[in-house]
User: Which sequence fits this backbone?
């Protein structure tokens, strides 16, 4: 299958590296310099101490016709990508964003494209414009945003390596909500406290704050199975104990975070339901201040 990967961040490079084993891959970057580096040096993926290389095509901008496009950019870059996609002929597009704010944008997007939604459960850290570390092996779960025939895409995405399975599900929204719950418990606190994921359960004070965020998010999302979901959050902290969350990586590097897609989405939903969420409100405001401070220091 001819697949275009939009975005040259950690997840974009990870997807391109693995999928290139079975598919014809083109990475569509924002910067010409990155596209040139990918073309010249190829992709480099490190997992469990082993290094793998892959050759793929790359170019700047959103152009071309593909059997499938996979959008891996973070939420705050999504509108620019949607504008670019609107100029293309009808295609199949899989969106892989954290949080759930992008669902509102896609609902309001006037397009003929076939839209799919995915949830990434891998850990990844971008090392350079062509290199990525696969820090946690998981899966990608995906489904159709609107009911339609998905056979062609399902068959193609079944052809993936064992360490990079892409699993179809009709319950993608439930999967997205549970991933959002994990994200809102881990990402804001690790970013604010500048700690790795495992510290949130190693330190009782941190774990208490995480539990407060969990309780508020659970209420806002209207999710049942409280004990199972809390155990799931704790298990992710243990499994990714040595990892830096993507939000912490963004803060350290002076980049805008996915605050709006994760915490912001929940606060909007809380406001609509007249639910108070003092801890999430504090996290959101603190991250906003930290983003501005970090961005200014890196100008």
Assistant:
């Amino acid at each position: 299958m001819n697949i275009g990967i939009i975005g040259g961040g950690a997840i974009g490079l990870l997807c391109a590296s693995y999928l290139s084993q079975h598919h014809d891959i083109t990475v569509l970057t924002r910067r010409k310099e990155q596209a040139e580096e990918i073309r010249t040096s190829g992709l480099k993926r490190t997992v469990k101490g082993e290094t793998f290389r892959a050759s793929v095509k790359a170019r700047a901008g959103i152009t071309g016709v593909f059997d499938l496009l996979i959008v891996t950019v973070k939420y705050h870059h999504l509108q620019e990508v949607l504008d670019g996609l609107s100029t293309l002929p009808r295609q199949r597009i899989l969106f892989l964003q954290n949080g759930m704010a992008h669902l509102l944008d896609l609902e309001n997007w006037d397009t003929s494209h076939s839209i799919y939604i995915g949830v990434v459960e891998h850990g990844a850290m971008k090392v350079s414009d062509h290199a990525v570390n696969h820090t946690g092996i998981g899966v990608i779960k995906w489904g159709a945003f609107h009911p339609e025939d998905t056979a062609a895409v399902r068959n193609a995405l079944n052809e993936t390596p064992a360490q990079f399975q892409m699993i179809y599900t009709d319950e993608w929204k439930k999967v997205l909500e549970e991933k959002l719950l994990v994200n809102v418990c881990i990402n804001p606190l690790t970013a604010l406290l500048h700690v790795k994921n495992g510290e949130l359960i190693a330190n009782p004070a941190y774990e208490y704050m995480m539990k407060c965020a969990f309780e508020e998010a659970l209420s806002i999302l209207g999710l049942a199975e409280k004990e199972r979901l809390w155990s799931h959050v704790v298990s992710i902290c243990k499994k990714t104990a040595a990892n830096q969350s993507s939000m912490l990586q963004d803060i350290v590097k002076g980049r805008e975070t996915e605050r709006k897609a994760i915490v912001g989405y929940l606060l909007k939903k809380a406001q609509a339901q007249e639910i108070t969420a003092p801890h999430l409100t504090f996290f959101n405001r603190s991250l906003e201040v930290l983003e501005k401070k970090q961005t200014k220091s890196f100008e």
